[in-house]
Every structure is written in C-alpha cells, then in structure tokens.
Amino acid sequence: MATLPRSPNSSRILPQRRPHSEFDAGINASTAWTEHLELESASSSAGGGSLSDEEPDYDEDAEDEFRPARALYAFEGKTEFRELSVDAGDEIQVIKEDLADGWSLIRNEAGEVGLLPRTYYTFTADFAETPEVALSGFLHRGGGHRRDASTKTITPRTGGSLTPKEVIPQHTGEWRAAFPSFRQSLLGGKSLNRFSTFVTSGAEEWVLKGTAADAILSEEPATTAAHDKSGSTDSNDDNDEEDEEERNRLNRLGLGEADRHFVDASLAWKAKLPPFRVLVHSPSKRASTLSGAFTVYSVTSLFHHPPNGDGEPPPSPTRITVQRRFSHFVVLHTALTRRLPGIALPPLPDKQYAGRFSEDFVEARRGDLERYIGRLVRHPLARYAEVVTFFLGCESDTEWKRLVPQHLAMPAAGPSFYAHVFHPEFNVDAEDAEAAVERFDTHTRAVGKGVQGLRSIFGKVREARVEMSKAERLLSYSLLALITSKPLAAAPVTGASEEEEDYNAKGKGLLNDQGAWCWREGCQDCLKMTKAMQKTAEAMQNVADLYDDHARRTQLATHEALKNVAHPSSLYQGVVTTHRSTLSRYSEADTHANSEMAARCETVLNTTMAEMETYHTQKTEDFSTLAKEHLDGEIEFYEQVLNRLRGARRAFDEPQYTQLGAEARQPSMYERELENPRLGAEPLLQPAPHVFDAAPMRPVSVAIQEGVGMLLGPSGRGSVFGKFW
C-alpha cells in the first residue's frame, strides 16, 4: 500500500470528522461571520441578480453599500439574458461582484440593473493616494497638451488639499483578459482561465490550509440540537415553519443536509434520493415589456413509486410541473457550479443569437434542455442540491423572484465543499489512484474520438436513408408509368425513338375501357393484375415515406442523443487535473510527513475517484440505452416496411386477387405526380452542435468583425485609458 504512514500520535480522520484547522477559524466560526452571510443573503434577496422578467426592486437607502466602479471596455449586452450594455468610461455601481462564470451584477447611472463581465470594470474606491510622491514634473511635462481637470474624478476625495497625488490602483484584478470580446466570440461564449480547476474549485486551498468549515463542523451538532423542536401538537404548524426556516438558514451557510456528501468504501457517491425523470415539453412563446419575446418550457418531474410487492401494478408517478425559460436554466447552472465545484456537471446548451423562435430551433433547444436536466438529476450529488429542488419544485412566480437572488448571492463553496465530503479512512491507495487516472484519461479521450466518428457516420446513414426514400419513390413512379402507359418525366426511356414515344394510350390499345393494362376489352385477368401492381406501387410510396420519416425523426433523436456521450474528456478534464495535482501534493505531504495535509489530499482523491466511478456507471447506462433505442427504432421501422410489403403481396393471393376484378380500376393518387415527381427532398436537419464541438455558435464573420473593430475602431471594446490619450 502506498498510502502515507501515520504517526501514532497523529490525528486520524474519521469518516464524519475533520481535524480542526487554525486557518481563519476565529473569524469564520464567529457570530459576526454568520451574521455577515445572513445580511448578505438578505441584501441579495432585496436587489439580487434575478433573471426573471420583472425588474427587481432595490432599497435606495442601501445605495452607499454599492461599490463605485468605472467601465474599462464597451460591452453590448443581450437583454434576453439580462446583460447590461455600457461604454468605456461609464461610471457604474457594483451590486454583487462574484457571480458565477465571471459575471457581476451592476447598476448604471440611469438606474438600470443587469449583468456585466467582471473583467470589464475596475473599482474606483480601491484607488489609494501616496502623499510622498509628487506629480508636478509629470503634470507640466505635457506643456500645452495638459488636459483640463474633470469635475468627476476616479480618486476619492479625502480632504481639501489641492496637492496632486499619484494614483495607484489596488486590488483591481488581473489584466489578462485584454481582448475578452474577440476571444469569447470565437469560442462560442466559453471563457479561458489560466488557473487550473485544482485552484478554481478550492481544492488547492483545502489541501494546503484546510478551511474554516472545520470549526463549523465541530460546532454543528450543538447547533442542530439547539433547534430541536418539541412534539407539541398545538404548535406543529409553527414548528414546521421554524424548521423550514432553520433548514434554509443552514443551507445558505453550507451547513444543511444538502451540503453533506458521502463516499463509500467502493469509491462511489452515496445517493440520498432515488433517481427520477424530468421532461421538458410544451414550448410556448411569451412576450415581456422588459426582455421582449422569449420561449417558456414546461418542466415536469416524474417520481415513480416503488412496487407494492403484492403483485398489483405500482401507482401512477407523482408529477410536478413548472414553467421555465432558458434564463432560468442559466440561474440553475450558475448557482449549481458554485455550490458543487468538485464534480463534473453537464454543460449548459449555448445561447442562440439568431432564429430563436424557429420551430426547428425550439425543438432542438427543448431536447438539449431535457438532456441537460436529465443528466443533472442523474448525478447522485446534484440530484438533491437545494437549487435543483428549488428549480424543479417552485411553482410560484413571486416565490421564484424572491428566492432566485438568494441562490445567486450564495458564496461559492470553494474549499468548504471538500470539508463536507465524508469518506472512510485510508480509502485511497496512491499508486492505484495514479494508475487509475492515467487509464481514465486515456479511456475518455478514446471514447470521445470514437463517438465523434460515430456521430459523423450516423449522419451519413441518415443521408443514405433519405436517398433510399428517393429510390423507392422513383421505383414506384416507374411501375405506375408502366401499367398506365404514362411517361415519367424524371426517367426518360432509353432506346426508343420519338415516333414510338408519341402515341395515344387508348388509341393504341395499351389500356382498355376498365383501365386495365391490356388491349382486350373486358379482360378480367389483366384488370386484376393491373390493380394488384398499382397496390404494389402505392406500397412503395408508403415505404419511401417511412424511410424519409425514419431519417428525420427517429434517427435524428438518436443522433441528438449521441451528444450525451460526446466529449467525456473535456467534461472530466477538471476532475483529472484536480486528481493529478492532488497526487502531487500527496507526495509532498509524504516527503514532509504532514499527516493533516495527507488526510485532506485523501478527501480530494475520494471526490475525484467517486466522479470517475460516476462516469463509469453512467457510461454503461448511456451506451446500453443508445444501442437499445437504436435497435428498437430499426425494428419498428422495418416492421412497418414489412407490413406495407406484406399488404401489397396479399393482393396477389386469393381471395383478394379475385375480388380485384369485380370493379374497374380507379386512377392512383400518385399518377398525377408522374409529370412532376416528388424526388427533391428538403435538406436533412442536423443535430444542434454540442457545447464542446469545434463549431462556434456565432458566425465566424461576426467574431472577426468584433475582434478587428476592437483593435482598430473606436466602436470596439477599447480600453478606457485609450480615450484619455
């Protein structure tokens, strides 16, 4: 075993206990820290970043709490996503700085509230003065080019002295995002972060320093016991309300049951809730005076009851249906990635910049959202996350608008996520963990490459089915042209002269008065044969329709479902990076005999190994489901084809064949198409691109135009300092 040895007097990490850490324990475990979080949550609920249709109300008396800032770049926001447009140099107020995915909630001078990328502004209140540095030489160096003093300054007023001071920016963030517009346009809105997931998820801070959650965990039983309610029947309702409030408060602080996660001895997550199914259906177009038109989807959760055991069928599943739009899914994804930084969450479908209300796009978006939420609730941790249950169960618009800012304002879990992961001691062997991550990384890369090839081939199979539909239809037309002696425009006869083709069917005796393909009048044999062949031609038309419909509906659904198993390497890249970095820290702890760091490394490794096990389980389910659904679709398709062909074949058998001679032949509905056959099919609809596909969601020309405009034109996202030269 390569697990680090423990000294006899070192503290062992129990499955549900963490060693006490001195890192900020006195601050974070204090009442002031708790009250700060509660006040911050309450302030966010009053003016948080809700993405609902109505404008949130803000307390004007609390305006001094907002931090003044100034925009560094021009930004053109999308109103449907509650993004706020600003120009470089605009003065703004930052309501909430740290939202997910690099966004901040800000307010402009006109009082409008919206989202702005965090790297697009700098705080003006963080500029400090240095009295010991004089700028007289610098101010007079420019001579006549000296710019007049502005009535508004980015330096706070601290006194009546007119002596110029040097302005030094403090804590204004990194300048690594110099060209965010050009970069994000080319990448379809994805951001590049030079820090690894090991850092951004809080795993590194947890491994090196622990977290204040250690102290909170040690006090948690007393906190829970203090809120135990008596069993008085007179105050059950009041107690239920108080219990609900207490649970909500603990969840906001990261102390609730939804924030505790357990890994068993087999390195797999322990599921607290049974799996359930979520459907996204019934899209409808709505309109709002604030955000314009948008699409609303019905989201229905199906909770199946366990079998009774008495042989009777189980009762119907419990259904909960709510109305959600795409921006609500953005809220869910944003909040969930902040609360569960250590797991691999499915990517949210990209935004759409054109054709958002076309029927094909709405259906594709519905399918993508259903696959997203379906994979979300399949994860044993995300399934019971507070924001997920809120998203799937909140039926009141008023309650949604009230609680969304609280979820968005909740602090990122960071290292406290790992502090709430409980696992058996010495559950990971270092050598096995290192070998496992190498095999896992190699396997997921190979799976991704293979699935991409499968998606490409499957597209060609669908195209081949459409071509087969054309061939079956052409064969049907040719057969009708033969028995009716009518020329087919799409298939000229070869080897016949113009004189031979220019004839009158009835005048030459090719069809008799009963419509039979015969020169004799009253020929019953030819009448029966002609009508049976006509049924054969009509069956081929039905077969052609089946081929076309199968390619456009059934196989399209399978083609779309292949996105569920595409790009596993990209999805689990953060898990692999965190795992490898933790192994490196594990080795350092071994070298320096740091048992506490080694114990924290084991926690992170249990987390990453549990994520790998989750992928293993889901991969087995996904590919089995894909294969079964494809085979079931093919079987159903070919059974329908066989039924059509068998029906045409029975027309040649008794007694149907004799009955065909009782009446004259009626023209087929497809005879009118012989002069203009339906052989040109519409382009085959392709699945919407996966988030990790190489194809950008925005047109490349738009991205290039934005990038060039930013570099050369004044209308681009140029720096505010460039306007001052």
UniProtKB/TrEMBL annotation:
The keyword ATP-binding does not apply. Signal peptide: none annotated. InterPro entries: AH/BAR_dom_sf (IPR027267), PX_dom (IPR001683), PX_dom_sf (IPR036871), SH3-like_dom_sf (IPR036028), SH3_domain (IPR001452), Sorting_nexin_WASP-bd-dom (IPR019497). GO terms for cellular component: cytoplasmic vesicle; plasma membrane. Transmembrane segments: none annotated. It comes from the Eukaryota. The keyword NAD does not apply. Residues 64-126 form the SH3 domain. Residues 1-63, 139-166, 218-252 are annotated as: Disordered. GO terms for molecular function: phosphatidylinositol binding. Keywords: SH3 domain. Residues 52-63, 235-245 have a biased composition (Acidic residues). Residues 275-398 form the PX domain. One of its GO terms (biological process) is endosomal transport. Residues 1-13, 151-161 have a biased composition (Polar residues). This is PX-domain-containing protein. The lineage of its organism: Eukaryota, Fungi, Dikarya, Basidiomycota, Agaricomycotina.
